[in-house]
Amino acid sequence: MDFSDKRYTYSPGTHHESKVIWVSFENDKELIAHLRAHTKARWSASQKKWYVADTKRHRALFGLQEEITGKAVLAKIHLINLPEFKRYQEHLKLKGYSPSTLRTYSTEFAQLLYVLKRNPVQELTPERLRSYFLYCHEKLKLSESEIHSRMNAVKFYFEQVLHRQKMFFDIPRPKKKLLLPKMLNKAEIKKIIAATENPKHALILKVCYGIGLRVSEVVALKLSDIDSTEMLVRIEQGKGKKDRIAVLPESLLPELRDYYLNYRPKVYLFEGQDGGMYSIRSAQAVFKKAMEKAGIKKKIGIHGLRHSFATHLLETGTDIRFIQELLGHNSIKTTQIYTHVTDLSKSRIKSPLDSL
């Protein structure tokens, strides 16, 4: 039994001024026991229904879509601009943007609406917009990347929703800083994996590094995505909603088989305690704990394993176009940043001074 059982129905709501998810079903001891075994469900005597806290975990467990923006965001937007904000979110949904992009764009656009108060957003002129972004720079002290993010969200409204293509024609963008991706060397990765005692956690890190996956792609891997005959892995709907094929390392296959026999996952390769997809936050916590146990002080997240994968492939002479395909980059320019990271080729360069 799982929470996709049609005998359960779910509806978000409020209870004692807190956000909850109501869980309705026929009075059945088996369903009650299953609900209480996997959640901290409580019974409401006044509503005569079971409920749980409205959290990301419970929404994922019940197959409910995450909220794009909460009531706190909507409460700050003046009534005159609420219809445009809702229209904005509807357009994002119709475009098929990911939940993460929906939240980011909505939050950034809402910041503009807060400042406007009762002034209609659709009446803004290019000059007023320019003044707003200057305010973001001088008063709010936003970084270059934060201003870029806000400009992208506002640009989407005027160009995609209102179809005003020239609104940003004279508004300059701040120059982005060139930040090289952070990476780990092979000795450090060996230490991290060796410090991870839990076999499941160690395998998560090996898959992340060994296949060069984003953490969101690691937790979304399904058993059906692993082709042990062809030694390939299908990455379904990665960033940009693209499918791609990656190479399954030979050393991973025996470990994957042992892991399956011990853990018996049902759908996803890595599943949480209550079944369903393993959470991104849990995978990030696994990496952080492994870094601490290995005694590595670098300020780097789990995404650094993917960067290290690309860099180490370059160092062994792998064609950069092949690396581009493995990583799922649209442009070769994105992959070329790794040529600035690897020092192995540079170390082989001889200065003209040495030949004097």
Automatic annotation (TrEMBL):
<keyword id="KW-0233">DNA recombination</keyword>
<dbReference type="InterPro" id="IPR004107">
    <property type="entry name" value="Integrase_SAM-like_N"/>
</dbReference>
<protein>
    <submittedName>
        <fullName>Site-specific tyrosine recombinase/integron integrase</fullName>
    </submittedName>
</protein>
<feature type="domain" description="Core-binding (CB)">
    <location>
        <begin position="79"/>
        <end position="162"/>
    </location>
</feature>
<dbReference type="InterPro" id="IPR050090">
    <property type="entry name" value="Tyrosine_recombinase_XerCD"/>
</dbReference>
<keyword id="KW-0238">DNA-binding</keyword>
<dbReference type="InterPro" id="IPR002104">
    <property type="entry name" value="Integrase_catalytic"/>
</dbReference>
<dbReference type="InterPro" id="IPR011010">
    <property type="entry name" value="DNA_brk_join_enz"/>
</dbReference>
<dbReference type="InterPro" id="IPR010998">
    <property type="entry name" value="Integrase_recombinase_N"/>
</dbReference>
<dbReference type="Pfam" id="PF00589">
    <property type="entry name" value="Phage_integrase"/>
</dbReference>
<dbReference type="InterPro" id="IPR044068">
    <property type="entry name" value="CB"/>
</dbReference>
<dbReference type="Pfam" id="PF13495">
    <property type="entry name" value="Phage_int_SAM_4"/>
</dbReference>
<keyword id="KW-0229">DNA integration</keyword>
<dbReference type="InterPro" id="IPR013762">
    <property type="entry name" value="Integrase-like_cat_sf"/>
</dbReference>
<feature type="domain" description="Tyr recombinase">
    <location>
        <begin position="179"/>
        <end position="354"/>
    </location>
</feature>
<comment type="similarity">
    <text>Belongs to the 'phage' integrase family.</text>
</comment>
